[in-house]
């Protein structure tokens, strides 16, 4: 199976505040490539309680490229036309859509799968 696993971290509750992205590409079920970048959010602020979750601060992201700079040069080519997989995909896909909307970039129609939903079906008695 071929896909790209995607994971965003945000600086605050608003979805366009992406402050990092991680991508892992799988081809024929094998990991073949990775990409990670810090992202400068549109408003340079990171909630302290979010720092407690992901460890990122304003100091970490202040000199990072913004999402629009990363999208065309790195993220979009990395994903290509592969389906996306995320754990709690509703969150990660909403971040992707929000940040693309923020920068007025076209939103591709990616197929995506939610590994959290799959885990809940496979292990219904396990607390996810």
Structure description:
The radius of gyration is 15 Å and the shape is globular. It is built from five helices and five strands. A five-stranded mixed sheet has the order 3-2-1-4-5. The protein is of the alpha/beta class. The model has no long low-confidence stretch (mean pLDDT 95). The chain is 36% helix and 26% strand.
Helical fraction: 25-40%
Distance between the termini: 24 Å
Order of helices and strands: EEEHHHEHEH
Q: What is the overall pLDDT average? A: 95
The share of residues in extended strands comes to 25-35%
Query: Strands across the major sheet, in which order?
Result: 3-2-1-4-5
How many helix segments?
Answer: 5
Choose one word for the global shape: globular
How would you sum up the major sheet?
5 strands, mixed
Helix/strand layout:
Elements (H helix, E strand, L loop, with lengths): L2 E8 L7 E10 L2 E9 L9 H7 L3 H4 L5 H13 L4 E3 L2 H14 L9 E3 H8 L6
Parallel strand pairs: 1-4, 4-5
Antiparallel strand pairs: 1-2, 2-3
In short:
The protein is an alpha/beta fold and 128 residues long. It is 36% helix and 26% strand. The chain is built from five helices and five strands, in the order E-E-E-H-H-H-E-H-E-H.
Keywords:
128 residues; alpha/beta; five-stranded mixed β-sheet; 36% helix
